[in-house]
Amino acid sequence: xxxNSDAAASGTVPEGYTEADAERWVHEPSKSPNRxxxxxxxxxxxxxxxxxxxxxxxxxLGLGSGDFVRTRLTHSLEVAQVGRELAKALxxxxxxxxxxxxxxxxxxxxxGHNGERALDKVTRHIGGFEGNAQTLRLLTRLxxxxxxxxxxxxxxxxLTRASLDAAVKYPWGEEGAPARADGKPSRKFGVYxxxxxxxxxxxxxxxxxxxxxxxxxxxxxxxxxxxxxxVEDSVVYRQVSLSVxxxxxxxxxxxxxxxxxxxxxxxxxxLAALERLxxxxxxxxxxxxxxxxxxxxxxxxxxxxGRFASATIAATQAEYGTGPHxxxxxxxxxxxxxxxxxxxxKGIAVHFLMAPRETSPTYxxxxxxxxxxxxxxxERGADVMEPQFAADYRAASGDDxxxxxxxxxxxxxxxxxxxxxxxxxxxxx
Length: 429
Hints:
mainly alpha; Hypothetical protein af1432; globular
């Protein structure tokens, strides 16, 4: 489908990148000669409806937890800030990394990972559902921005090859998903079967199953942001008390949860990582909700982000120099101590918040709502869908394609609209 004959038509390609990196799936004439192709990519994502919808989608704490709880949107903005600073220091395009960070959660459905698992269950026989694969589908097909001038086929945001590759967190399909470090199967993948054509185009020249350098930075920025900020939110909303980590037994329970949940990590190394962090003067061991306590907690999050970013920058520059480093010409070097510290922070959120709620009535209801809504939309068809999805439904050639369209529609909804649609079309509570 690609008919791009002038890769550099939309502005100057930054140092370290080639014209092939700046190619778009479908050629576009130059519109903004004062902007690089990658600046245009970032702007397209920033102005997308999918990004706005993240403001009403759950990050970790539900939207009813408090007025200032992080959403998928605020999380994505924070990831973009961390990623942009890492990119500037490491010699790749800040705009490519920024775009990938803003895009990384666009495909996530209502109710966070809980909703993702529900949609995966109802679509397992047609290739499953995965938030990262849905992100690629949205960027290259679903988001209403561009259409092919000859066929009229939607082509999403029509981003450059470099920006799309940077947004691919898991560069393989469902059938090629590697096992976790503990040997258990993984459901993480980055492309559905019917999006393979554009995926193969964007991965031209890329080593098999290898993240681009920019994708590695996006991935780390995501890990840093949610490992730190999820703990911060949980402390503020009294789900977590860091003082209990003084107890060795409780610390070991957190380590066990981290290893079970993420399938990796050495017990002794994680305990040592927790102890290292607790020894810093900025570690906020207690919290009473006062301004002083809030300031101390915010300082802790800043210190942690700076610590993780600085260690990675130093290790990568020691290995590769100052750059420029782009696409598949370098590998991000993250020290093992940093990986352990990030993982133990994730373990704190898992232990106190994420694991206990897995069997809660609210979580059970969320999964049921999405399963029933997908079934209802697939049966009722185009008449109950938004116009763009209705068109996809009418163009579908069989039941499997129609089911995928119903899932695309449901995945686009916010948490509140998912409940509203369920009440309207399923009569449910």
